[in-house]
């Protein structure tokens, strides 16, 4: 993705950058997939599915396709048998790391997981 800004429409009379950003990454699994890909260079489909947890094959496939179409994720077919597909963030996708980190920090400060559910922790070297 070039340094040219992406054009995103908003409902209403005025354009809102928060609404526009939420329109791109506001679907349930989008931020979680981006979070996982921020932490590693590449992940195969099954590894990504395990890392995300609780996501079906179809939903992950649809999420990755949408993120790829928007320029956040790169999909590369490895030259292996059986065929292996690897996913990574593009430079554009990687630019979302501070947004995802802010969401995680806000959630850790203001939200509490249900009893008996382990909380995801971010590594110290998470991109900031």
From TrEMBL:
It holds the Pfam family HxlR. Residues 16-115 form the HTH hxlR-type domain. Keywords: DNA-binding, Transcription, Transcription regulation. The keyword S-adenosyl-L-methionine does not apply. Gene3D superfamilies: Winged helix-like DNA-binding domain superfamily/Winged helix DNA-binding domain (1.10.10.10). One of its GO terms (molecular function) is DNA binding. InterPro entries: HTH_HxlR, WH-like_DNA-bd_sf, WH_DNA-bd_sf. Coiled coil: none annotated. This is Helix-turn-helix transcriptional regulator. It comes from Haloarcula salinisoli.
